[in-house]
């Protein structure tokens, strides 16, 4: 194997047969900041969850099979340089970008006032840059103007993404969970067929326990949002934005042991509840 890239969470290796090996680590990041500590069992959960979703979704994917508890073999694709997000709830960065009733009206075509965490009238599809630093929203017209994707291909990606979100949401609901949003990546295979790529799990989606869901509140997340919420609570995000305006970045704080244990427990819990399998 030859190491091609060491990401924030995954290491990507080139195999002798030309396929890729994605090895999931216990590393964790939030707000594009990497932390020194590890979350026990996180890598195994991400790998096994990806395996589960790729087999559940009726969509062509790059998944070939798992090779270790925390590694899977995938087809090498020509990747599309964007990430695609489906949001079903008024949460996350959407809260920061759509702050007024008129902002939301621009999305839904009608006057609308939503509480934090409220369910949207219907899921929305967004495009963002794909970066090791900060992902930024991209307008559909800009993507088309750059000539990277044709309008028909982008429409196919949108329809596929919305269908994936609907399938994931319906399946998670059977186990008492809400999928608030999901981030997806796509590429093209050797036949130029649109193909689902990367992975799908608690690092690519917000997952809430339905019985604890309360619009207007910070939701109890079963994903890495738990770390983001703690960083906001201690003022780290505000400090990060302040330093970013000067071109600097803060030193990441040390994650407390109780939060590491809670995150590990929640990753394992949501995997076992939704899939019905033991880790």
Q: How many strands appear in the DSSP assignment?
A: 13
Helix content: 25-40%
Q: Mean pLDDT across all residues, rounded? A: 93
Class by alpha and beta content: alpha+beta
- Rounded to an integer in angstroms, the radius of gyration calculated over CA atoms is 19 Å
Assembly level: single chain
Count of alpha and pi helical runs: 8
Order of helices and strands: EEEEEHEEEEHHEHHEEEHHH
Distance between the termini: 27 Å
Low-confidence stretches are none
Largest sheet: 6 strands, antiparallel
Overall, the morphology is globular
Strand content: 25-35%
Structure characteristics:
13 strands; 34% helix; 5-stranded antiparallel sheet; 6-stranded antiparallel sheet; 8 helices; alpha+beta; 279 residues
Can you tell me about this structure?
There is one protein chain. By secondary structure, the chain is an alpha+beta fold. Helices cover 34% and strands 28% of the residues. The chain has 8 helices and 13 strands. The strands form 3 sheets. Strands 8, 9, 10, 11, 12 and 13 form a 6-stranded antiparallel sheet that branches. The chain has a 5-stranded antiparallel sheet with strand order 1-2-3-7-6. Strands 4-5 form a two-stranded antiparallel ribbon. Helix 1 (42-56) runs parallel beside helix 8. The longest helix is centred in the middle third of the chain and has 23 residues, at 151-173. The protein is globular and about 55 Å long. The two termini are 27 Å apart. The relative contact order is 0.16. The model has no long low-confidence stretch (mean pLDDT 93).
